[in-house]
């Protein structure tokens, strides 16, 4: 049974690889297209004027700590209720857009549609949202995938974004400093305490590389900030290993109604 499953997964991976390579070859011959539709755009990695408004880009006012957008105008620097109640382990978190509408479509195209070619365009959107974080950090690193999931998906979407951000900023990218020691269940349906239990000890710093981050300011990159449980577990591991500060930059973030209302 396990062997059959493994064969199916490998076969599916190869099909996806060929499809992706074929599309990459075809795309090189065609004028650049919008990241969300087939409209022609000036450069690869852009959105057309019709698709742009469908993406909920996050702008001020937002919580200075976790970056959740406030629903109504508030005084500068107002921290959200969640951060006041339970201070996150990261110094600041920012995301390019809300996970919903065109933003959700972008994430799913990139993550599940084999559109790894979107990484530079998506990283450019993250760069706009997290410019101060990128300027102030010493190093960039992605949230790790467990090797079993990496094998099935063939790529770590967070690592692709981290690498693209490293390319445009010149900051070093530590691709395998954080490691998943074991696979974890999907966290979406678990409550806060259960999520924390599920992640306890699952993410760790490679002891052989720990010296590289001692006293350094790190920028952690992920595709979607959902509950914050995974990035929080990564941040705690990094701080325990001696990092001076960790900030978080994601492509999208889930914003629940109760979060955006102050
Ligand atoms: Zn479009
Ligand atoms: Zn907050």
From TrEMBL:
UniProt xrefs under InterPro entries: ComF/GntX_DNA_util-trans, DZR_2, PRTase-like, PRTase_dom
Alphabetical list of SUPFAM superfamilies matching this protein: PRTase-like
Phosphoribosyltransferase domain segment(s): 211-253
One Pfam family hit: DZR_2
Sequence ranges assigned to domain Double zinc ribbon in this UniProt record: 26-84
Matches recorded under Gene3D superfamilies: 3.40.50.2020
PANTHER family hit by this protein: DNA UTILIZATION PROTEIN YHGH
Family stated for the protein in its record: Belongs to the ComF/GntX family.
Record-given protein name: ComF family protein
Species classification: Bacteria, Pseudomonadati, Pseudomonadota, Alphaproteobacteria, Rhodospirillales
């Amino acid at each position: 049974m396990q062997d059959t499953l493994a064969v199916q997964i490998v076969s599916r991976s190869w099909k996806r690889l060929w499809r992706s390579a074929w599309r990459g070859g075809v795309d090189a011959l065609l004028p650049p297209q919008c990241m969300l539709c087939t409209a022609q755009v000036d450069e690869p990695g852009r959105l057309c004027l019709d698709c742009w408004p469908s993406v909920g880009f996050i702008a001020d006012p937002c919580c200075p700590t976790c970056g959740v957008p406030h629903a109504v105008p508030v005084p500068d620097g107002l921290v959200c209720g969640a951060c006041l109640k339970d201070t996150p382990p990261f110094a600041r978190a920012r995301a390019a857009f809300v996970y919903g509408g065109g933003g959700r479509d972008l994430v799913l195209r990139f993550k599940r549609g084999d559109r790894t070619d979107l990484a530079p365009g998506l990283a450019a959107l993250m760069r706009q949202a997290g410019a101060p974080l990128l300027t102030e950090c010493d190093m960039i690193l992605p949230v790790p995938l467990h090797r079993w999931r990496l094998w099935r998906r063939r790529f770590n979407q967070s690592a692709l974004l981290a690498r693209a951000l490293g390319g445009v900023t010149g900051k070093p990218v530590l691709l395998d400093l954080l490691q998943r020691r074991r696979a974890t269940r999907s966290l979406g349906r678990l409550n806060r305490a259960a999520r924390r239990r599920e992640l306890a000890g699952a993410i760790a710093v490679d002891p052989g590389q720990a010296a590289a981050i001692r006293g350094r300011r790190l920028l952690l990159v992920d595709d979607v900030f959902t509950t914050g449980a995974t990035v929080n577990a990564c941040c705690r591991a990094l701080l325990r290993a001696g990092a001076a500060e960790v900030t978080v930059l994601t492509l999208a973030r889930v914003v629940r109604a109760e979060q955006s209302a102050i």
